[in-house]
Amino acid sequence: MKMQIAINPRLRFRLSPFVWILLALMGIAFVVAMIRYIFGIGAISNLSYSYPWGFWISFDLFTGVAIGSGAFVMASIVYIFELKEFQPLLRPSVLTGFLGYIMVVIALLVDLGHPERIWYMMIHWNHTSVLLEIGICVMSYLTVLAIEFSPVFFEGIKWQKFARTIHKYIMPFVILGVVLSTLHQSSLGSLLLIQPAKLYPLWWTPILPVLFFISAISIGLAMIIFESSVSARYFHRGLEIHLLEKLARTIPFVLAIYLITRFTQLTLAGDLKYLFNSGLMSILFWTEIIVGSIIPLVLFSIKKIRQSPNGLLFSAIILLVGMILDRFDVSWFAVRHPDPLTYIPSLMAFNAHYIPSLPELSISIGIFSAGILAFGLVAKYLPLFENEEEHHAS
Amino acid sequence: MTKNVSRRDFLKLGGAAAGALALGEFIPPMVAQAARANGQLDASGSGYIPSMCEMCVWRCGLLAKIKDGRVVKLEGNPDHPHSKGKLCPRGQAGVMTTYDPDRVLTPLVRVGQRGEGKFRQTSWDEALDIVAKKMLDIKQKYGPEAMVFSSTHNLSQPLFENLLQAFGSPNYGTQRSLCFNAMTVANLMTFGVEEPERDYNQLKYLILTGRNLAEAISNSETGELVHAVDRGVKLVYLDPRFTKTAAKATEWLPIRPGTDLAFHLALLNVIIGENLYDQNFVSQYTVGFDEVAQSVHPYTPEWAAQLTDIPADTIRRIAHEFAAAAPYALAHNGWRTSNFVNSFQTERAITILNAITGNWGKALFPASGGEGAGLGAPPQPAYPRISALRLDGVPWKYPFVPLKYGVFQQMRDSILTEDPYAAHGWFISRQNPAMSIPDRKKTLQAFSKMDFIVTVDIIMNDTSWFSDVVLPEASYLERYDPLSLVGTPLSAVGTRAFLRQPVVEPQGEGKSALWIYKELGTRLGLGDYFQYKDDEDYLKQQLAPLGVSLDQVRKQGYVDLPAGSSDMYQWTTPSGKIELKSDALDKAGFDGVPKWEEPPAPKSGQYYLLTGKDARQTQFGTQNNQLLHKYDDEPGLWMNAKTAALQGLRNGDTVEVTSDVGQIHVKLQATQAIRPDCVYMTPGFGHLSMGLTTAYGLGESDSDLHVTYTDPISGGQALSQTFVTVKKA
Amino acid sequence: MTDIQNIQHKTFLFDATRCIDCRACMIACSVENNIPMDKTRIWVAGVGLKGEFPDLSRASMVYHCMHCEEPDCMSACPVGAYSKREDGPVLYNKDVCIGCRYCMNACPFGVPHFDYDKGLIDGAFIDKCTMCPQRIDNGLAPACVATCPTDALMFGERADLLKIAHERIAAHPDRYIDHVYGETENGGTSYLILSHVPFSELGLPNLGPKPVKDVSEAVMGLTIPFALTWGAVLTGVTVGVHMYNQKKEAAAKSTTDAKDSTEETK
Ligand SMILES: Nc1nc2c(c(=O)[nH]1)N[C@H]1C(S)=C(S)[C@@H](COP(=O)(O)OP(=O)(O)OC[C@H]3O[C@@H](n4cnc5c(=O)[nH]c(N)nc54)[C@H](O)[C@@H]3O)O[C@H]1N2
Ligand SMILES: Nc1nc2c(c(=O)[nH]1)N[C@H]1C(S)=C(S)[C@@H](COP(=O)(O)OP(=O)(O)OC[C@H]3O[C@@H](n4cnc5c(=O)[nH]c(N)nc54)[C@H](O)[C@@H]3O)O[C@H]1N2
Ligand code: SF4
Ligand code: SF4
Ligand code: SF4
Ligand code: SF4
Ligand code: SF4
Ligand SMILES: [Mo]
């Protein structure tokens, strides 16, 4: 029997101060982006010859893609494993993923030197390039997400027939989506494989893609919990607490696999020696391990915590913070950039240091704001949390 | 790097044609036409034309790559022994000197106050009329000697000298007393030549006394030095600074400034005392050995050690090594030897060291440049007799200084004191005395005493800035210069005279010196001294006796001169031998054999102020070149890091540097690369002219601090003899 | 693997003991290649001055693209903007570059530079040393090499220069570190370096004989097979789960068929 999900059919959405702030942040980002398009990336960011990638890549790409993993995790659960009880969590997760990936692409349109050529990835293929694989996967997956989400849209505009047709043929796309996700979630890790001389040995390993994939699953699960909890609070909806509890039960297993894989790798590679005497690197490593894996592993193992809304949200946040730190470490903090000692520094701009500039941050903040706003709008105007009666019996 | 070059500074080389070139469309492009006819440029106007570098006085041969009527690249001419296919940083950047956005491209007449930098553009006719009228006025009122002339070594110098001699002025200032008088006069007195040629090919041992060849670059010699080191030559390098030459040396000796004489006297002491010299050579080809032996007797390594801060053992060992390596051992004479008033005797000691170890004909050779005369010249009448004394005291105060060297800093001082008479006009060409003479304040005062100053230059240098008329010369890539034997050994190399020819049309109204001096001479009523139609005609008259056509020379870039025959063992000294002792010096009351002369030393709290070249700049004229600026280091005051720490000074601090005559505020560079009792500044920064948009505001000038000292024998200035205090500004 | 001792590639040889840090090479490059005033393809690297007065030494090198035998930049670029020419130079094609700057991350030498100061109108590109094809194709040495007053930079065939390099080491074992950097580093480079100080003091990374791109390329090679396998597995699981569920459902719901069919037609 279908459980009763508390629904507030007329979600509150109005031009509250919060919305105004979001709009303002988007406006700032827009202006900053225009400056970047006219005067160059250097005009708004602190990126340099030694830091070709910075905050945008770590946050918008690495973090953005990682937290979009909820979509494929949910899709697998609901469609592939046919655990239909999780259906109510599917749509918000797919939407989060869909919006997340759009945000990634928008950020890349700022970060790329030639955004107008982004589609060149479709026609000029260098098959050895991990970035090409990611590019193609992300773009294809975005399409798949659009298809997966489109029934919600068509239902929203009352084109039920369309919605149903799409639904009928959804399975191949779901499988494609999962394959694509597996590929690019792990390939984000592969992206750094080409930096064995730059990425600190505590992070660089040939199995980075495997680690990335496993951690992406944990992030996906945590994101579903996080996003359900938050939207339940914000939209005053009921919380599917028993579903979340079930999901949460799996997290310790995922994290355990992650930890075992990671430490086995470090041991086999003989990199244990770096664990404690690498200064800042040791601190970063242990922070991400403790915050991202060990603490959540413990918390999610405790039934009481899993059953409390606050406990769930809190544990999910902890996991996300730790795992996002991992993405930052791998793509930024633990990368030792080549600093060919040079005494023509001002000309070469070989900055040994990099701190993102405010305008740089404002781009990411603006895009993030847009994402939140978009989620709100969809939640208001489309049947995001509605019961899908017609599936119920299928 | 100095300051970040702003985007406004972009000047794309080889980019769109400059305004001046647009004008060129209406004038037949003569250079290109001729080069095409010669087969150097193809139908599209691209190709290579040989000429000569003028970024410094080494004058390497170059090949200019031409495209669309512009020079797009310079290559070293493989035929030229000074370039051997290579150009140094300054030579490479020469394109930017020609295309410097700050080039002066029309004659200028001052309209504002002197030094205010306000000029109006004018025609050559008007400018030359003004100059001629002023010069004639001065001549009429005060006599021709009231007009002083000065110019730094260059290929059109014979015509400059022609002008001043025809005009009738004895007053001639050159860079030489600022630069190498101590060295060349010492050589003249010992060997009868200014500078014997050095041969690195077989060298086994080399002592460089403050000759920073890795930074004060003489293209081919710099290369030879590095190759010699590569082969395993033992290089001993004396310099209070750890220069880039020091980095290549087998042994760097951070000698106390001014004590090189003591070091070399001690070497002589050991080599003579232990009979390590070449007795045959000495007895056959030299005079005065006994006096030298007697004179150096007291100068033991132990004695020298206290003065030089170099251990006695080291000195003794070097003497032994040097003698053992002889005759393939060389004590290099140095070049800018204007360090102390005892520098002349230092140079004498070095020449004597070379002579008694018998390296003549092995490491040292008679200068070949002086040979191979045989060039023609336009006919001209004799010069008027000149009775006035020279303001610079040559020869009445400085009997040993050749007339063509002069004592420039003394000339400046005599202008100020009006002793023995007042000067009223100053004609300056290819020179920047506002920066190059010590004590800049005094030089500017001397300018202010002038009724009239005219400068021939290519940019608005500091001297132009204070001038009444500025005459724009075409740059060295835009003009002919005479095939010149003046100032040997620098222009004719071996028995070949290389040609400077235009490789592109002059921009704006730039004209060659050949043209300028002829036009001015004619207006001064001295046309008979300039009997040539134009530049090419002058060259044709020069080539006439050789039976070689100008076209041919233009094509191959040089002309072979008949080899002069000379006996390598015949010296043009009074005795015909190498004069270890100079009777002439003796008679004039100086030391005929070198004796220790204690130079002044800084009081406690003071530092020796050192100067010395930077590989990216030449003297005081290239700092505006954006390409050189691009790759140069930031100028500042070097101070030993420990000394600085003791004084509580930190790298990057602005410090106040004070000498007896001036004070500047400059950025401190704390470094290990200098003796604790010395500070150092790169010369050539701190320009006054705001017409130099890249250079203005960069660094400070050490000329503001330098006190003027003159060595009474050679007339050389003493640049390391200024002492300064340094404190936080 | 290719035999990196005998590759026929045009190559540079740089000898740090000869370099006087005059920077003629840099100016020559700027002029030859029309490089803007605030950019450069070639620069000075190294610790510079070392030690305390009066025990001092100096080490610097001239740094530009190493023209790796197995270029990592080329492996990394998603759109294939890099190519290795048959005779050695690693070239960049700005017409396809999307400006992702992954090549800058990939290059272990920090060579490619990006136009951070250019907007969409000017077009922001990567720049790096090209080995001056416009010169070497006409029998000239690259501009930087041709002008070097001390022959610290030389240019020629890789095998010849390797021979010269080893001869120099053999002739002066006291002077040189007994290794030619670039002979094997990163799979071999077309920029060989002789030095009197440890190479790290010249700012050179410590790299093994395998190019840094190796692992990345190996993993990339697995992508398609993995994707196909994974797709098949997932399809299998999906079908399996579905069939299992249907069977279970069929068994459990045989009595409620009628209700289901009415709902179906709703
Ligand atoms: N790049 C470049 N090259 C040049 C020139 C240039 O302007 N730029 N100019 C050319 C000209 S005109 C000349 S004259 C030559 C000059 O070439 P050099 O003769 O090498 O002269 P500097 O570089 O002026 O000074 C050389 C060194 O003398 C040291 N020194 C100062 N006082 C003393 C002392 O008392 N004893 C000793 N042993 N050393 C002392 C300084 O620290 C400095 O490093 O260079 C020529 N080459
Ligand atoms: N403090 C300090 N003083 C020094 C020295 C030092 O090391 N430190 N060095 C001394 C030495 S060694 C010397 S040789 C002297 C040099 O002293 P100067 O000869 O006075 O100085 P330069 O900078 O060589 O002057 C060259 C001038 O010629 C101009 N010029 C360049 N090309 C052309 C051209 O084609 N035609 C014309 N007409 N003009 C041109 C330049 O713009 C510049 O103004 O300075 C001496 N003074
Ligand atoms: S040494 Fe350099 S600046 Fe002097 S002439 Fe030769 S290339 Fe030109
Ligand atoms: S040095 Fe860097 S840019 Fe040059 S070929 Fe190697 S990887 Fe590519
Ligand atoms: S910046 Fe351009 S050249 Fe470099 S990897 Fe990206 S697309 Fe390729
Ligand atoms: S080879 Fe050419 S492009 Fe490369 S650094 Fe040398 S001059 Fe510049
Ligand atoms: S030109 Fe030669 S000596 Fe000068 S910095 Fe370049 S490599 Fe070194
Ligand atoms: Mo000089």
3D structure, described in words:
The complex is a heterotrimer of chains A (394), B (729) and C (266). Chain A has 394 residues and is an all-alpha fold. Chain A has helices at 17-39, 55-67, 70-80, 87-111, 120-123, 130-156, 160-168, 170-190, 208-234, 241-269, 280-301, 303-307, 309-333, 345-348, 358-381, 389-392. In chain A, helix 3 (70-80) runs antiparallel to helix 8 (170-190). Chain B is an alpha/beta fold and 729 residues long. Chain B contains 26 helices and 27 strands. Chain B has a 7-stranded mixed β-sheet, with helices on both faces. In chain B, strand 18 (492-493) and strand 19 (496-498) form a beta hairpin. In chain B, helix 11 (260-273) runs parallel beside helix 16 (343-356) and helix 14 (301-308) crosses helix 15 (312-325). The longest helix of chain B is centred in the first third of the chain and has 19 residues, at 124-142. The radius of gyration of chain B is 25 Å and the shape is globular. Chain C is an alpha+beta fold. Chain C has 8 helices and 9 strands. In chain C, strands 8-1-9 form a 3-stranded mixed β-sheet. Chain C has a two-stranded antiparallel sheet with strand order 2-3. Chain C has a two-stranded antiparallel ribbon with strand order 4-5. The model of chain C is unreliable at 262-266 (pLDDT under 50). Chains B and C meet through strand 3, helix 3, helix 9, helix 10 and helix 25 of B and helix 1, strand 2, strand 3 and helix 5 of C. The complex binds ligand MGD (2 copies), iron/sulfur cluster (SF4) (5 copies) and molybdenum atom.
Short description, anyone?
The complex is a heterotrimer of chains A (about 400), B (about 725) and C (about 270). With about 400 residues, chain A is mainly α.
For this entry, give a set of tags:
heterotrimer; A: 394 residues; mainly alpha; 16 helices; 69% helix; globular; disordered C terminus; B: 729 residues; alpha/beta; seven-stranded mixed β-sheet; six-stranded mixed β-barrel; 26 helices; 30% helix; binds ligand MGD; binds iron/sulfur cluster; binds molybdenum atom
